[in-house]
Amino acid sequence: MSVIDKEYWLMLSALLFLGATTGKVAAQPLPAEAPAPAEAERVPSHDTGEADAAVEAEGPPVTESPPTPANLEAASPEGTAPAPPAAAPGAAAVSPDVPAPKLEHEREVEADQKRSEDATRGPEWAAFDDPDTGSFQLKGRVFTLAELEHRREDVVGDSGNIESRESTSLDLSLASARVGLEYQSPLPWLSVELELEIAGDPEVKDAYIHAGKRFFARAGQFKIPAACLELESPWTLPLARRGFVHDLLVDWLDVAGRRPGLMLGYRGKGGVKPRLTLGVFQGTVLQELAPGDRDVALIEKASLESQSFAARAEIEIFDVKVAGWYEHRVGSPDLGETQHYATFGLDATYDETFESGGLRIWLDGTAGESFYVHEDKPGQDEEAIFVATRALVGYRFGGMALGDPYLEPFGYFAALDPDTEVVSDFALEAALGLNVGFWDRARLTLQGELNAGQRNFPSGYLDQQEPDRIGLLLQAGARF
To answer: Where is 446: in which H helix or E strand?
Structure first.
């Protein structure tokens, strides 16, 4: 072997030895945490230039040759993943707890998900939201109605006498257009709500301040805590409208309704979820009376005897809300006259969602003193005792989430006995209908209804107008 061949083999052996040694060093596990230099022990601030000083104190970075894949594979134990290469000195260390920056398409997916969640939160949307000044929500609904009605009514004949005749009419109307504004202050226990009816002459429906959570107070104009069917929103009820017995109770007997007032309450959690409300409300007095129409107005410069007092207590038992209520109401039996009348009631509601639909039930019963007495009843100076009952049931197919298509048939029955001491004086009401639409967004309601009064029904109700009628309603509604 020549001298050149010996030198060649010596160099080749040295290179192989060096490569094997480098591979073994690279395969050594990295320490869990490298000790920091003493002068760089404190985490530097990003805005003082201390980071650059700490790096300079460490000296120039040492560059090492990265291990080759072959060496890593040879040095790694069988069945284990190779150790990651060591980070270069001076590079920012990435903690395993800090998520990696999101790619652009990941950010777009998250934005789409957020928009989808915002769309399914509810019909209300936040018009303004600021942690320092609070948030505003705008909401509203619109109902249009086509009503085909056949009824018997009393009219003045050619001879001047009152005559009863049959009539059929078709009425197209904007039944309701509500717009509301809710304000949630930066104080989590303080909010304000305003709701206006703008179909026809603008009218304030709700306008109140609500303070508190578990114990709360409310002041302004809002609904008197009475029967569940009166407290429920018209949008929530499957009915096209509250109906004939509702009109008799609220418009003709001055029960429930909206009034300016003050209410205190308690709302419990867990168990039976008790709730108690106590309130005082401004009374109303009769201003004008016409067949089928009774206009009242708030009592001005009211005395201490001109307010209605109300209380309602409810609990929840096996998903059924059961409640009892009392109203010492101001009623107006004649123009400019007022008097207090005792009224009380019981009610129950059930609203349950199943795999493919939902069942909703409302039941209530009301009794109290009345100022309508049949003209032929002996002892008309005594106040009559009325009793009313109502039941509404609806079962929907679909509508499992906001905006889902659904179909909901429903049935409704109500009766009012104007005087428990008089026979054959009932007012009766029945309705059957079907809702089709997109759950809690838009719906089309087809409803047939029947009203009837027995022969001794007091003529004071409806001011001599006959209660008998048949109606077919087609209603379209949308909510935002």
So the answer is: strand 442-453
Tokens 């948030």 map to which residue? Answer: 135
Long-range pairs for 446-450 at CB < 8 Å and ≥24 separation?
446/473, 446/474, 447/239, 447/240, 447/472, 447/473, 447/474, 447/475, 448/472, 448/473, 449/243, 449/244, 449/473
Q: Domain-by-domain residue ranges, the chain? A: 141-175+230-259+276-479
One-letter amino acid of 117 = E
- The model's pLDDT over 6-64, given as tens digits with 9 standing for 90+, comes to 544 555 554 445 444 444 444 444 444 444 444 434 434 344 444 444 434 444 444 44
Is residue 340 helix, strand or coil?
Answer: strand
Tracing tokens 């009313």 back to the chain, one arrives at: 388
Question: What CATH fold (topology level) applies to the domain 141-175+230-259+276-479?
Answer: Porin (2.40.160)
Q: Which of 143-147, 194-198, 304-308, 379-383 has the lowest mean pLDDT?
A: 379-383
Which residues on adjacent β-strands are paired with residue 406? 398, 437
Instruction: Kindly state the helix (H) or strand (E) to which residue 16 belongs, with its residue range.
Output: helix 3-26
Of 315, 312, 339, nearest in space to 325 by CA: 312
| Structural contact between residues 364 and 346, judged by C-beta atoms closer than 8 angstroms | yes
Note the Cα 12 to chain centre separation in Å. Answer: 82
Strands 384-398 and 357-370: antiparallel
What tokens were used for 459? 């003529």
Q: Report the SS3 class of residue 200.
A: coil
> Which among 271, 270, 350, 281 has a CA at the least distance from the CA of 311?
281
Amino acid at residue number 372:
Y
Higher pLDDT, 24 or 341: 341
For the whole prediction, is pTM greater than 0.90? no
Strand partners, 228: none
* Percentage of the chain modeled with pLDDT above 90: 62
Distance of alpha carbon 363 from alpha carbon 322, whole angstroms = 10
The span from the CA of 313 to the CA of 277, in Å, is: 7
